[in-house]
Amino acid sequence: TSAVLEAIEQTASLNAFISVTPEAALAEARAADAARARGDAGPLTGIPIAHKDIFCTEGVRTSCGSQMLDNFVPPYDAHVVERLREAGAVMVGKTNMDEFAMGSSNETSWYGAVRNPWDTTTVPGGSSGGSAAAVAARLVPAATGTDTGGSIRQPAALTGTCGLKPTYGRVSRYGMIAFASSLDQAGPMATTAEDMALLLSAMAGFDPRDSTCVDQPVPDYRAALAGQDLKGLRVGLPKEYFEAEGVDSEVSRAVEEAVAVFRDAGAEVREISLPNTSLAVPVYYVIAPAEASSNLSRFDGVRYGHRCADPVDLEDLYKRSRGEGFGEEVKRRIMVGTYALSAGYYDAYYLKAQQVRRMIRDDFTRAFETVDVIAGPTAPSTAFALGAKADDPVQMYLSDIFTIATNLAGLPALSIPAGFGGGRPVGLQLIGNHFDEGRLLGAAHGFQ
Ligand code: GLN
Question: In this entry, which stretches build a coiled coil (predicted)?
Fold first, then answer.
């Protein structure tokens, strides 16, 4: 833990952390030592980890990357934080992120952009960019992230690390600041599938405080890795993910080479089709902003968070607190979402988007009748230069063309390093059926 704290200090220019908590971390590390001395240690006892600053931490500022919550110190821990602490992991700090998890480059953070350790002139991806950079720079062996449309997998891909978005409902969202509640899931980020398995076993499980959390037993994901083989694994390659316009050739090349590893190991690789792939981004950008506009209405300057100076009346308090506290991307989402939900437009936008969401889910249901996992690129490009897409929201939104559909369908998916393109990491995405995280991790482990 001391070595980790020192490394974090030496790499402050990456801007991976919003808060570092050395005293608490050293106290937890000493408690872990004591547990080990008593013979009372599990696999995560004493392991230093970082939490994305979207997870509430008792007594530790939880900003969600926003000026709105710069002064917010939660009185309780998120479920995920609680579970990892109970497993003996030591929290060293809170990682940087896009504001309210809205972004794909970590440039919307009020605390400034995060730099990709592979090339500090490029972005680490987002929104869990701080967690990805911290793991990529080997500051911590693992970190938590959240994924609403790709925010764990896309930064994992751009930083050459591993990230898993579990099935919707597998991990409790209690204490995780809400962006789009029907899409948000927490998951692990690490350097190997095995480490993700260890973390997921600790994070997952039923929690009555999240009404969408599913009451299903949690397997020992790490123990399950041993019994799996790539031989005979049925791998589907969606033709739409390889033909898609705007996919860098170096990305497809690295992914095709990774797929060859599966083939050589005896996997049955076949082409499949997910015909509604191109509708995922437009559907997401109706549903996610709609849900966000509702979730973010709680930040009103009254109860907690930023409050403007000297309000003249209640309306002035609301308007100026929100106007000052939220950044541009967050305001854009609130406006789009409020529009899509307003009377007269609800049927045309929100309801229509929900119908197409079902079609996207049905595509996957059909695909999983013939394959065990679906493989393809995680992101269409490697890490791009800081600022390159910052002024073009549509270009930025397209960073998630391969990750968003799984959130809409509630499916688990992970990203692992496939290789390099132009000297920059490329991610391989594996998508599984609902609650099939064990098989996904097994396939990733076999590949690694
Ligand atoms: N990049 C997408 C967005 O900006 C997804 C973010 C996420 O998964 N939290 O909404």
Answer: none
pLDDT at res. 284:
98
Q: How many residues does the chain have?
A: 448
Q: What is the pLDDT of residue 246?
A: 80
Indicate the pTM of the whole model.
0.98
DSSP readout, 171-239? Answer: S--TTBPPSSTTT-EEEEEESSHHHHHHHHHHH-S--TTSTT----PPP-HHHHHTT--STT-EEEEEH
The pLDDT of residue 319: 97
Query: pLDDT digits over 77-92, tens only?
Result: 999 999 999 999 999 9
| Positions of the chain with pLDDT lower than 70, given as ranges | none
In the three-class reduction of DSSP (H, G, I as helix; E, B as strand; rest coil), residue 134 is classed as helix
Q: Which of 55, 95, 98 to mutate to test the pocket of ligand 1 (most atoms within 8 A of CB)?
A: 98
Strands 234-238, 268-272: pairing kind: parallel
Residue 333: the pLDDT is 98
Dump the DSSP string for 255-313.
HHHHHHHHHHTT-EEEEE--TTGGGHHHHHHHHHHHHHHHHGGG-SSSSSS---SS-SS
Q: Is 145 in the pocket of ligand 1 (CB under 6 A)?
A: no
Active site residue ranges: 52, 127, 151
pLDDT at 20: 98
Atom of ligand 1 nearest to the CA of 288: 10
pLDDT of residue 426: 98
| Contact (Cβ atoms closer than 8 angstroms) between residue 140 and residue 47 | no
Distance of alpha carbon 443 from alpha carbon 234, whole angstroms: 11
CATH 3.30.70.270 applies to domain 1-448: no
Q: Which amino acid is at 41?
A: A
- Minimal CA–CA distance to 157: which of 182, 122, 181? 122
Residue 17 backbone phi and psi in degrees, to 5: -115, 140
Output the residue whose Cα is nearest ligand 1's atom 10.
102
Predicted pLDDT at 245: 76
